[in-house]
Amino acid sequence: MADRRRVNGPGSSTLPPVYDDGELDAALRRQRAPDAIRPLYLKTGVTPSASGSAYLEIEPREGEHGSGMKLTCTVHGPRSLPRSAPFSPYMVLSTHVKFAPFATKQRRGYLRDSSEKDLSTHLETALRGALIADRWPKSGVDVVVTIIEGESTRQDAVERRVEEWDVMNVLGGCITVASAAIADAGIDCVDTVSGGVAALVASKDGKDASIVLDPVALEHESILAACCVAYLPNRDEVTNLWFKGQLPSPASCNHQSLVSRAVQASRGTHGLISASLSEAIGSTQN
Amino acid sequence: MANQQTLLSPAELAYLHSSLSLSPPIRPDGRTAKQFRPLTAETGILPGTNGSARVCLADGTEAIVGVKAEIEKTVDPLGGEHYQEYVKSASGAGGGDAEEDKRGARGEWLEMTVEIPGLRDDDAGTVFLAELLREALLADGEFAKKLWINRRFHWRLYLDIILISPPLSYPLPLLSLTTHLALLSTRLPRLKSEGDEDPMFDDDWEASPFLYPRQGAAAGSRPPITLLVVAVGDSILFDPSKEELAVADSALAVSLCEVRTQKGDESMEVDSGRELRLVSMRTVDPPSRLTPPGVPSTGNFAASGTFDPSSQKKQQQQQQRVEEYPQEGVWKAPLGGTRFAVLDSIIRAVLEKGGVADEVLDGLEGVDLS
């Protein structure tokens, strides 16, 4: 006997229809120019208890929720190493990258998984090239980056399996925010390092490929290859290079153009870091 | 790589650096810049696995790789049993073309662990190595498709890499070559069932096909190899030893895979039909950044034997200058990054036709696959 006082659901369970047409919604497509990076917001000195800190927000698309990225970084130290640690003529750098448990669609555990550890190693390589570590012998510094909101919070991201490409963007953001936090902590660097990402994306019919800066995997049909660099603009040097993917066979020099576009993206982020730092200096002087 | 500190003095490091930056470079073990260390390799050593290999370098470091496969039910991202039926009805009746279905293959079906004695298995360096090898394998998207059985089932492949001896140098090339051989010798049981039935396999091991098909149908990609290349001054060195890594300005791990294209019958000589494709690269933090700096004798009071407090200020200035400008023969750890031109010349040297990669692949081809 059905309960007639309430509006009951259907008797058997149903699933919403799934349309597998493989077409991208026109509104979801990339509307930025291929060489434009998304607007960023960077603020240093957000955590009073740390010796340096920074917060970076990558703006989501207009009218969208949750396709941006929010990262925070704290720098602790330089402080003396524990007595048990062996002598080091340099500052010992340790980096931690952690997704907050709620940062992605699929919940992350509290223990760092292998991709987070891998990101930490990349970040360490990127920062170690920039630090003048021999000015702090016998001391250690901890750089902790937390990703508060990841890019792939949408269901689409899980369905279309684009997380592997989003990792590149996460690393780019981590490098930028860590560099600003290190500058805020007043640790000597040869230059402020900044992160940039470029990707080779296939067009709809899969025939021709083009290079875009700061790619969002959801906005493209498929990504063929991606590259993330950590770049020192004043020295014109790369401290970390990460490339993966499949380049179309005839163009042998495509990796060069991909890297140079990634460098171009990191030049853009570098402008942001210096603007944010000079703003911070201006506010302390007043 | 924190545990890989060498016990070389700053003077030794400076000497090593200058002899390696000569053209041609003089390496401590007498190799040329593009020469690999000799190695012995064998495959099919572990009867309990689907494929295995062992590679032993001349300096005594040895790695074993075992590949094991299990059947697993494919779980949908939407978490519903009905999903498959929806897809089936949407794509018009069952048994649609398999190529289309194989797009559902996922990289997660490959599990890779690296074990290095003396290092914890959750150590950042070990995880970095495992991710590096895994990423190279999955980069072209072809590998996951090989693990697809039907819409409901797939193979889960466990690739376990064990370094038997403590690492004498950065073990990346050794592990990569061993993985390459193990994957080439991997066989999966022959499928007897059809369509989306529960899979049934032929129990004749002799009939089992290789994961990477042999010469007959040689077209398609082969497992990747990863080469470690360092730049010291202007010279580019392949397969660096521990001492060479300790003075390297930059280190780059380049993964490439060989794609064989079949062009009718005239491609009898396989070597000429080989095409190398870059699949991934990563900079590796060179341990040279952690080496102790040298002190020039002008700034060393103990050497000059005189200490004049009035000239202390002058000497401090001198110290400052020393920090900024490297002096010939005084070791200083490299600072800053690498110019892209250097990285690019490394990549070119790796991808060069008839270069080191070709030589290594030729060598690996000579290994008897059982």
From TrEMBL, chain A:
GO MF annotation list: RNA binding
Keywords carried by this UniProt record: Cytoplasm, Exosome, Nucleus, RNA-binding, rRNA processing
CDD domains found in the cross-reference section: RNase_PH_MTR3
Keyword Ribosomal protein set for record: no
UniProt entry tagged with the keyword Lipid metabolism: no
Domain Exoribonuclease phosphorolytic: 37-187
Pfam families: RNase_PH
InterPro entries: ExoRNase_PH_dom1, ExoRNase_PH_dom2_sf, PNPase/RNase_PH_dom_sf, Ribosomal_Su5_D2-typ_SF, RNase_PH
Annotated TM spans: none
SUPFAM superfamilies (UniProt xref): Ribonuclease PH domain 2-like (SSF55666), Ribosomal protein S5 domain 2-like (SSF54211)
GO cellular component: cytoplasmic exosome (RNase complex); nuclear exosome (RNase complex); nucleolus
Domain of life of the source: Eukaryota
Subcellular locations according to the entry: Cytoplasm; Nucleus
Gene3D superfamilies cross-referenced by the UniProt entry: GHMP Kinase, N-terminal domain
GO biological process, one term: rRNA processing
Family: Belongs to the RNase PH family.
UniProt-recorded name of the protein: Exoribonuclease phosphorolytic domain-containing protein
Native source organism of the sequence: Trichoderma asperellum (strain ATCC 204424 / CBS 433.97 / NBRC 101777)
Lineage, highest ranks first: Eukaryota, Fungi, Dikarya, Ascomycota, Pezizomycotina
Automatic annotation (TrEMBL), chain B:
Cell compartments where the protein resides: Cytoplasm; Nucleus, Nucleolus
Region listing for Disordered, in residue ranges: 282-328
Swiss-Prot/TrEMBL keywords: Cytoplasm, Exosome
Gene3D superfamilies per record: GHMP Kinase, N-terminal domain
TM helices/strands, residue ranges: none
Keyword Cytoplasm on entry: yes
GO molecular function, one term: mRNA 3'-UTR AU-rich region binding
Record-level GO cellular component terms: cytoplasmic exosome (RNase complex); nuclear exosome (RNase complex); nucleolus
Residue stretches of biased makeup (Polar residues): 297-310
One Gene Ontology biological process: U5 snRNA 3'-end processing
Chief localization: cytoplasm
InterPro entries membership: Exosome_comp_Rrp42_subfam, PNPase/RNase_PH_dom_sf, Ribosomal_Su5_D2-typ_SF
Record bears the keyword Cytoplasm: yes
Entry similarity comment: Belongs to the RNase PH family.
Protein's name in the database: Ribosomal RNA-processing protein 42
Organism: Trichoderma asperellum (strain ATCC 204424 / CBS 433.97 / NBRC 101777)
Lineage of the species this protein comes from: Eukaryota, Fungi, Dikarya, Ascomycota, Pezizomycotina
